[in-house]
Fold this sequence. Notes:
Elements: E1 3-7, H1 18-23, E2 26-28, E3 46-51, E4 53-61, E5 67-76, E6 80-81, H2 83-87
Antiparallel strand pairs: 1-2, 1-3, 3-6, 4-5
Amino acid sequence: MEEIAGAVDSGLNGDDERKLLMEEFTLESFPKGSAVITEGEQGKKFYIVKTGKATVSQKKKNDAGEELEEVVAELSAGNYFGELALLNEDDKCNATV
């Protein structure tokens, strides 16, 4: 993934306030293959993929009880993640991206 804009939820609504909201975002770059958020950690930001791609994975147990990482989605420009940890009372990330 090359560039992701991320910011905490500012609570703004309406077309006239979109510019104000975008001013709250900061551009962050991550090396390919690195984790932006990790399942189980506290979520602190909402991310929008600007360029590149990201893989979403979750921990699952197989029939033998071994813990494995399962790819559950692929994200690209315009997709977003991190919102659920901000919206839920238990502010833990439910996947690794």
